[in-house]
Amino acid sequence: MSSTFPEDQPQDPNATGSGAPADVPPASAAGTSASGSSAPEPSAEPSALSWDEFLGGISAHGHATAELHPPADAVPSAGPHQHERGHGTHLGGEGTTPTRRDARHAGASADRSRRRSQLADTPPREKKRRPGAWGCLIVLVVVAALVGGVVVAFQGPVISLINAVVAKTQGPADFEGSGTGTVNIMIHDGDNGSDIANTLAKQGVVASYGAFYDLLLTTSPAPIFQPGVYKLAAKMSAASALKALQNPANKLERTVVIPEGTVAVDIYQLITEGTGIPLADVQAAAADVSSYGLPPEAKTLEGFLFPATYTFSPGVTAHDALKTLVDRQFEALDSAGVAVDARWKTIVLASLIQKEAGLRNDYYKVSRVFLNRLDPAQWPSRLLQSDATVAYGTGQTHRVTTTDAEREDASNPYNTYVHPGLPVGPISNPGDLAIDAAVHPADGTWLYFVTWNLDTGETIFSTTWAEHEAAVAKWLAWMDEHPEYG
């Protein structure tokens, strides 16, 4: 819809310069008169319409659009002809008409009026409230809680990582000085440096595994550790602990030395002396034969207590000490290639060899003599005729000679002068050499032997009775010179 600006209308020659009559309404946006009748015939000089009246008409009807523009040549009068704002009437001089500039002002004013009207008709929207101080505080608390949770969750790994880094840069923790109190440390047979470092750290002797182990790696020559119990202290420096372990004076020894050929009753006494275990406890433990895994023929531990030097830790029990000896004998039999079902006969024969032989090379010859006598084709009676077996049966285990009456005593089950074959059980505890000789006897036809010099162990081996008689005569002569052996 368009509106006709006043300057576009024909001019009314009868119009006066005093302005439009008061009863003439402004032009409507519809282009019709206020009375609603048809438009009058244009006159040569239409009445002038003030711009304020024009604006008032727009405001009253509310139909002005942005297409209303003031005429381009409508320039307001200069000088005293000014608008009095707020009254809606024109105070201009004679013949003054609205200008295009006034039209532009009117259009802008109409737009503002229309926007105000729209805003008045539109319900106000709720303003978004910005978070205040309390809201910010709540957010900070939530964030802090989340961060705290993350810190707690990762606290362990983070601390571990930090400790690892510190350990790398500063080295493992270590105590200072020689420590306080007493801590007994057990070094087992076969323990290496790492094992010992672990033991020391776990028992609080050193501050850390690394402190001791790193010291071992940088010590030259490499330290050598002996099995046993050592008296140390708590909170020692790694260097002090190493020095203490190398000092024999700190070793709490429970040492038992068992010579080859020692009989069981003497071994029990040696264990008591070396460990402090009461003899009655050792004897009671030895009586429980079935608990050591011996062959079914065994009635005692005799023969199965391996002769060697043993070191026991303080507090060892009698049974454990004896079991250590038995297990070591089983190891010796296994090393010699003795089958489990052959253990009994091998140990019995080896115990005889251990008692009768003197020099090392004689062990294998003595073994051959006994085996030849056990062969009925070579020795029909199969009587071994060993004085050592007879003496053992009498309880005189430290004697090597017997009397005629003792050799004739059939009540002695160990009397091999009257009982053929091997004796009923071992007569000593043999070592590796005697066991090896029992398994690998020397080749020969010897049926007799006699140790004629008991100090040196020299022995004469014979095949015939005559040879043997001569050897016996030599032995008797030596015995006459050494009555302490009689």
From TrEMBL:
The record marks E356 as: Important for catalytic activity. It catalyses: a peptidoglycan chain = a peptidoglycan chain with N-acetyl-1,6-anhydromuramyl-[peptide] at the reducing end + a peptidoglycan chain with N-acetylglucosamine at the non-reducing end. The gene is mltG. It is found in: Cell membrane. Belongs to the transglycosylase MltG family. Pfam families: YceG (PF02618). Residues 1-17 have a biased composition (Polar residues). It comes from Glaciibacter psychrotolerans. Residues 25-48 have a biased composition (Low complexity). Its main location: membrane. The chain crosses the membrane at residues 133-154. Its EC number is 4.2.2.29. Residues 1-53, 68-130 are annotated as: Disordered. It is an enzyme of class 4 (lyase). It is a single-pass membrane protein. This is Endolytic murein transglycosylase. The lineage of its organism: Bacteria, Bacillati, Actinomycetota, Actinomycetes, Micrococcales. PANTHER family: ENDOLYTIC MUREIN TRANSGLYCOSYLASE (PTHR30518). InterPro entries: MLTG-like.
